[in-house]
Design brief:
Elements lengths: L1 H28 L38 H9 L1 H12 L4 H11 L6 H12 L4 H16 L3 H59 L21
Helix pairs in contact: 2-3, 3-5, 4-5, 5-6, 5-7, 6-7
Length: about 220
C-alpha cells in the first residue's frame, strides 16, 4: 500500500511536469487584454477670415462742365495742357480754326489762354496771324507768374519757330506774287500776239468782190454833158 501511493504521487508529478511547459507557452502567447482606446475628439475646423478690403481711391474724372484742357492743367500742369491743345488744333480745318479763334477771344494776362490762342493762330499759316502768335509767346516768356514761368521755355521755342515760319511764308507769298505777275504779263503778251496775227490774216485773205473796172475815156470832140 505505501508503495502504490508512492508510485501514484510519482505519476502525478510527472504529469504535472509534462503539462507545465504547455501552460507556460499558453501564458506567453495569450495576449494581455488592452484597454479600449478612447475616441479622440475631432479637431475644430477654423474658417480663415476674409482679407480686409482696402478701399481704392478712384482717379477723379473731369467734370462735364470743366473744359478738358483746364482739367489737364490742374492735374498734369500747364505744359501738358498746352501740348494736348496743340495736338487738338493740328487737325482743324480753316473753318474750325476760325471758330476756335473767335471762341478764345482776348486771352488777357492768362498765360495758358495766351498760348492756346497763339497755337490756334499759328495753324492758319497767315503772316499776320504768325506775327500775333509770336507776340503772344513773347508775352508769356517775359511774364513772372508761376504758370508763365512753367510755360516760358516752350513759349521761347515756339516763338523762335513762328518767326522762322513767318519769314518762310512771306518769301513764299512773294514768290507766288511774282509768279502771278509773270503769268499776267504772259497773258497780256499772248493777247497782243493773237491780235497781231488776226490783223495779218485779214491782210492776206483774198477779197470776194471783183475788182472795179475803170470807165473808158470819152472820144475827142465828143460833147461833154
Amino acid at each position: 500500500m505505501p508503495l502504490f501511493l508512492s508510485a501514484r504521487r510519482t505519476v502525478s508529478l510527472w504529469a504535472a511536469a509534462a503539462a507545465a511547459p504547455a501552460l507556460l507557452a499558453a501564458c506567453a502567447t495569450s495576449p494581455s487584454p488592452q484597454p479600449s482606446p478612447q475616441t479622440a475628439p475631432a479637431p475644430a475646423i477654423v474658417q480663415p477670415l476674409p482679407a480686409p478690403v482696402v478701399p481704392v481711391e478712384a482717379e477723379p474724372s473731369a467734370p462735364a462742365t470743366q473744359p478738358a484742357i483746364n482739367f489737364i492743367a490742374a492735374t498734369s500742369g500747364p505744359v501738358a495742357a498746352a501740348l494736348a491743345y496743340a495736338d487738338k488744333v493740328r487737325g482743324f480745318n480753316p473753318n474750325d480754326l476760325g471758330s476756335e479763334i473767335n471762341r478764345l477771344g482776348e486771352p488777357g494776362e492768362v498765360p495758358l489762354a495766351q498760348m492756346q490762342l497763339a497755337l490756334a493762330l499759328a495753324q492758319t499759316r497767315q503772316s499776320a496771324d504768325l506775327v500775333r502768335a509770336q507776340g503772344l509767346m513773347q508775352r508769356i516768356a517775359s511774364a513772372t507768374s508761376p504758370e508763365a514761368q512753367q510755360l516760358a521755355p516752350l513759349a521761347r521755342t515756339l516763338g523762335t519757330r513762328y518767326g522762322e515760319q513767318r519769314r518762310v511764308e512771306e518769301e513764299r507769298e512773294k514768290q507766288a506774287q511774282q509768279l502771278r505777275d509773270s503769268q499776267r504779263r504772259i497773258d497780256q503778251l499772248s493777247d497782243r500776239l493773237e491780235a497781231l496775227r488776226a490783223i495779218e490774216r485779214s491782210f492776206s485773205r483774198p477779197s470776194n468782190h471783183p475788182p472795179a473796172v475803170p470807165a473808158a475815156p470819152a472820144p475827142n470832140g465828143a460833147a461833154k454833158p
